[in-house]
Amino acid sequence: MTGAPPPPLGLAVIGHVNHGKTALVRALTGMETDRLPEEKSRGMSIALGFAFREDPAGDIDFLDAPGHEDFLRAMVMGTAGARAALLVVSAVEGFARQTREHLQIAGLMGLNLGLVAVTKADLVPPDARPGLEARLRREMEDSFLASAPLVFCSAVTGEGLEALHGGIRALAAQAPPPDPLPGVFLPMDRVFSLAGAGTVVTGSLQGADLGAGDEGVLEPSGRRVQVRQLQVHGRQVASARAGGRAAAALRGVAPDEVRPGEVLCTPGIFPATARIDIALTLSPEAPRPLRSGDEVRVLWGARQDIARVRLIGDAALAPGAEGLAQLRLAAPAPVHAGQRLLLRRPSPAATLGGGRVLDPVAPELRARTLEARRGLLAATLAGDLDGIAAGLAGRDGGAVSLAEAARLARRSPAEVEAALSLSLIRLDEGVFAPEAALAAARQAYLDRLAEAHGRQPLQAFIPLAAFRNGLSRALSPALIAWAENRLADAGEIRLERGRIALAGHDPFATLSADQLSRLAGIESDFRAGGLSPPDPSAFEADLMELLLASGRLVALRNHALRQTLVFHLNALDAAVGALHAAFPPPMAFTTGEARAALSTSRKFIVPALEFLDSRGDTARRGDVRQVTAPRNRFGPAPVPH
Q1: What is the distance, to the nearest Å, from the Cα of residue 583 to the centroid of all Cα atoms in its chain?
Q2: Do domains 184-265 and 273-367 have the same CATH topology?
Q3: Ordered DSSP codes for 242-287
Q4: Model's pTM, two decimal places?
Q5: Contact at 8 Å (CB) between 446 and 454?
Q6: Residue of 260, 295, 408, 599 with fewest CB within 10 Å of its CB?
Q7: Is Cell wall biogenesis/degradation included in the keywords of this UniProt record (predicted)?
Q8: Does the domain formed by 513-627 have CATH 2.170.270.10?
């Protein structure tokens, strides 16, 4: 049983204008990449060209980049879809301006594998080749092609073509696999209409394989589409493999509704974003240091955007230096973690450097958290999952989001979950925490609750929502919930109707003798008031709150009058006995009859009866009620007033 064939190799063909790139690709593949009339009339590529060679050892997609500086965007587009480079240098002219710039940009875009084709070799004498090769090696000594194979060749005579074929096969075997992504990511470099297919888009497919019938979304427009047909190398296929070129016919969108530079994505995975954090390498030939606030042009995939730079931890980056930065895009763009990009100065145009996306949905940078953010991004750059988890825990009050850790580590959620489970404790679905953070959260909860009791010693309970909100400045919601549940189960805290208290908190123990005396007087007044109690606003609020929290007084709402009335619990208990005596079950009574029996007013009787209903002492059926409590369950009826 044979394994799956290797993924297609995107090969960026780069070099100076008129050095023979297109002629060499034609000789290697038999295909013409200059398809536009203007290209044919000028004899010069002005757009990214495409050709392919199918091979059992792995298909090759040639991405023929224009060599003229005016079309640098198309060259970057080619390197963005490639995993290796074929640098083309004329044996007659040697290294030229765009040869150097293309080589530099390919390195800044993350390419680290390739070979060198010295074209037009038939135009130089054989004895000149060793000296020419030595000069070319000196030009490339600081680049990723310093030790790459170098082949003298000619598209006219065919010299060196077999050696190039062999070198390209070797590249396909050596190239690292395409970056794994959680979904389809297809930057669209061409959009056109085709009879029988409708709207067709093409691009270098990244991430997951794309299948005919798949649902997708165009970002950043957000238009939902369906892939009705797929073609690879001119043939209709059921699915296209990541790493290679693909043409997709889309259902649900017209050609004029799609712009080159948009991305066909798996829905919900790559939303357009306006802030990204990147690792940045400034070109040694950058015209000046890069500073926070500088405006840059960002070239990535098949698009370009304008952004402002905010350096993270550096005042400025000198040419050749490396650092971390946040890009604030002028308009949201679809981005994925690990994506390579090129930074250019808008005017006068010049290459500044290259970068790699560390966090495609970066939070806004703040001075007080800048150093912590720098540490998290450094761990992300190093691929250090433990460091990423520690950084997230420090930022998010002890909690580690599985989804965010997987995104930053650029690993699958299942893989990251298995790794985190070895060293962290699962709090909830998709949330972990270090063991030390759990102990700290438990203690912080108790300490903050003790502080709250200290500020309001006469309150038996603290409002739970306000307490959680205050605690959330230090702890994540997941850790707060974990600590609360553990403390409640252990009997260390009491939770009651949206309020919380330490189990050992006794507000009565904090009262002075004078306060105890006043408290007894208040309780006596309400006990004596029976079902016609006094106005609660006439008494000290903190002592009233204490009696209400203790359960000796009960606050009831008269909704019709929009008033809160307070009764002594004994009075409500005694009312049940009086109603039982006056209306022995199964005798029913009306509200007015109950009011008369208990010698009170409608203002008080309505909330009192509703309370007895809620407690199950009485049962309401329409306009009448019955007593359901057993006889003599409560004390004697209150004395009528």
Answers
A1: 66
A2: yes
A3: TTSEEEEEEES--GGG--BTBEEE-TTTS--EEEEEEEEEE-TT-S
A4: 0.76
A5: no
A6: 295
A7: no
A8: no
